[in-house]
Amino acid sequence: MADPVSPQPAAAPGVATAAPPELLVVGRLVGAQGLGGELRVLPLSDFPERFTRRGPRWLQAKGRPAQPVELRSGRQLPGKELFVVRIAGIDSRDAAEALVGHELLVPAADRPPLEPGEFHLLDLVGLEVRLLAGGRPPGVSGAPAGASAASEAPKGEQAENSSTANLDTEGGADAVIGRVLDLIHAGNDLLEVERTAAAPGGAGRRVFIPFVEAIVPVVNLAEGWIGITPPPGLLEL
Fold this sequence. Notes:
Blueprint (H helix, E strand, L loop, with lengths): L22 E11 L4 E6 L5 H4 L2 E6 L6 E10 L6 E5 L5 H5 L5 E5 L11 E2 L7 E4 L19 E2 L22 E10 L5 E6 L10 E5 L7 E3 L4 E4 L9
């Protein structure tokens, strides 16, 4: 028997119904700007053209299918990280406020080319998280972590060796402590990590790890893991 088909939720004003199979989140609508339907966007990408170049985009509310829209224009607010965008069919403050909280997406195939050693931060979701036995292990192939954005080149100084009180990494073995569930954009990006059953606190407990090189010195996309050297107490928060 075929699975029942659920009715599609009503689209927001100016939003069509079709969506490509794979999309990449590049921003989040965080507020209305003025009275004419413009929206403020918190960028989750290093590429300003995602918010300033006219063309197709997609919007997605939590738990709903993504819906295509047309970005008519965009600009960065002076002195702020935020961008202001205008979306076709959204011409009032009420219509704009109805879209607050939606994510702004582009086709995953539309990623700008990266230089060797660069990576997209959203590629971190789903990776295994390992507590490194002795700081950055020698000979590991993997880019060091950078700061916030959708893609980053290696930057900053090599991390100091550190340890955590409740996980034993003596003997040279890295300890698997969880898996990356999400990337949270704040002053510094935070990795939301779900702990494993073997980790202190038990399976399912979530911790938030700042995505900075001093704490996440190794990103190994090819093998599907990141290595962390957290300061004492971070994993127990």
